[in-house]
Amino acid sequence: MTAYIIRRLMQGVVVLFLISAVTFFLINLAPGGPSSAVSFQSTAAEREAVLKQYGLDKPVMVRYVDWLSQAVRGNLGTSLNQGLPVARLLAQRAGATLELGLTALFLATLGGVLLGIVAAGFRNRWPDHVVSALSALGMAIPGFWLGIVVIIVFAVHLGWLPTSGVFSVGKQFSLADRLRHLALPAGVLAFTLMPNIVRVTRSALLEVTHSDYVRTAHAKGLLPRVVLLKHTFKNALVPVLAILGLVTTVLFSGSVVIESVFGWAGLGRLAIEAANGRDYPVILGVTLLAGAFVVVVNLLVDLLYAAVDPRIRHG
Amino acid sequence: MPRKTGPHLTTRLLALLAALAIFTIATAQTPNYDPNGSLTFVTNADPTLNPWTPGAVIESNLVNTILFDQLTRYSTKDLTPSPDLATSWEAAPDALSWTFHLRQGVKWSDGKPFGAADVAFTFNKVILNKALGANNSSVFSPVDHVEVVDPNTVRFVLKSPFSSLPYYLAYFAGMLPAHVLESAPNPLQVASFNKSNPVVTGPFKVAEFVPGSYVRLEPNPDYWGQAPKVKTIVFKVVADPNTQLAQLLAGDVDMVTVTNPTLLAGVERNPNLEVLRQSQNIWYWVALNQSDPRFTDVRVRQALLTAIDRQAIIDSVLKGYGTVATGPIAPLQKAFYDGSVPSYPYDPARAKQLMADAGWTPGPDGILQKDGKKLTITVPTGQFGYLVNATLLVQQYWKAIGVDAKLNVMEWNAYIQDVVVKRNYQATLAWWSTPPTPDITPYFSTAAAEKGNNIPNYKNAELDALMAKARAATNVDDEVTVVKAIEANVAQNLPYLFLWYPDIITVLNKKVGGMATINTPTAFQYSADWYVKR
After folding, report:
1. Which end of chain B is more exposed for a tag (fewer CB within 10 A), N or C?
2. Measured between alpha carbons, how far is A37 from A39 in angstroms, rounded to an integer?
3. Which of A51, A154, A163, A280 should one mutate to test binding to chain B, selecting the residue with the greatest count of B CBs within 10 A?
4. Can you name the CATH fold of A94-278?
5. pLDDT of amino acid B8
């Protein structure tokens, strides 16, 4: 088991290296340049001075080797547009994204699994139809649009919740204030993530319901509730876990949009700002962090499989 | 339910009157503003709290205007340069130097005195240090260096006359503290200053900078002027313009500048909000690349402008928030603006005639051609504000006279790289936002072609000479005469096709008082006057 984990982590390092190389060359191939140098008003003299300060007058290959040799020592470089170390920017923003992402994931999983159970339990009856209509809506509605609509309804017209931000000015450590700010963005993000979980839960449950051991359990005269929770649900968990692994990776791209709409000070908005302003070191930093996150989540999901399904053994 | 009768009503009325009386006495005794008032503004990204750092642009300009005093600031009446850190100034008779007398007794927010050494440092070590590439530093290229005459007097020694210097000193030109930054290897990249707590002379200083969330300002107790009447100013980071307006409607934010007038619906009806139409020296233009021989014929430029119905674009794309432009000097510069120059009103027949005079005649497919070559123009357009919509309309107007314009919609940063850096375009639509000075040299001079802000790469020796003459003027009357000649010259030759002067739409919560209405950059130079109405 330990050997397996170590092997997977080594593979992860290779994956991260590939991500860094592909990202580095892709962003440098893209037209444009860091907005600190390439702005509408800047003259050639101003632009060249700034590019030189940042070493952007060197060939791309040399820059990659420079960056990589620093990165393996833990130095991710300095933001071209903000003048701060990339590691510091990532640390400033990671907390807010984790807060939003984990809350949304929790809400989406809870809601998705519950609705999936309802849909499977009432297959082809009205609760099932209501749930599938909701899922279709969640799939079809773009997050940024839903975000603006809920801001207009709940913040502007009803005035129940704040319009944006992670916390009110000066209330950094108030739990109630943070929860109020979290409600809308986490709700919208969860709503867009939920449909996949609902559908997989429903179909996995239905599949297991028709299996021999469930029929046997019913035949033994066990209570339907006991059959559902002990026999059906536990076995239906494996595909649900698989989709959770996938959803977690989608979570990051979803939060890029949600963070912009809700003024959420997270990694997603940092990534957007960096991409718009061609802040190469920050783009690389965010991409690597997201990559590392996905590698770790996938490993955790694989380990959880083994815990849930005794037939799966990692060795 | 029985209605309440006589006696009750009288007692209630009496109580009401008594309450009113008390209220009136109370309000008469207290000032009409809230001493604990707080104002909240938005910015689209984390600001960089140093006005000269490359990359400190739109997200930083307003907060830096509050924090960093300048030598001059614009008058709230007519935008002429008025005293700020300098109390008076005069040009030498030979126009080759300017002397500025500094305000006495000014302190930095760390308690150290401000003086001539700070001004000399800001110019000699930062702005004029080419290796730093400071924002906007190119406009100060006529300045050779700044001399300390005495602790309260500086002299700007010039390479060539520069009559507009006091105007440029009021345009995002904050003074930096020498004692804090002079030991730094790069004074523009000091993170503890730029991203946390800069040392300033303005009415407010930074109290808290929460990355990605907000910057909170508090009154600067060392401020040289009248103490600010607002206790807190917050700049919230809100990237999305829709969310910015939602915040304004919810009362979470007190002012938003609306760049896209189509977003205004709903705002105009809100009783708590006031929509202000302001003006700045901003002009939209179409640049026709002069490296392309087809556009060097002035008749072609005149035809391509005559073909565009600018008023119709203003009415549709700008929702009426703008006026047709006649040149680079906007009407708000009352002394210099000349609206009597040729303005090329919309006339497709005349446009076709001008093209025919220049040798462009319709081919069998209706597209103009000359020497067997069709008039096909590639037009890159950047995704910013309403540029794409406006360019689409220009394309249609040109099509009507037989010009085949091919649009290429580009992401903004890539557009700048192609159009501004590489000048890889044939025609393009964008704008200039300039200080309210009649000096148009940075955008029109031969020296600024290819490398500077002369985007169309236009070269005209006569115009260069006129602009140099305007810079050498030592009194306003002479300057007005030369500037009128410049306006006539550019209106005739159309280095740029002048489109419109947009109104700046600022939506303000009615609780905000004391804010100059002339335009936002100027209002932010007088933040000590702001108050929150009770």
Report:
1. N
2. 6
3. A163
4. MetI-like fold (1.10.3720)
5. 53
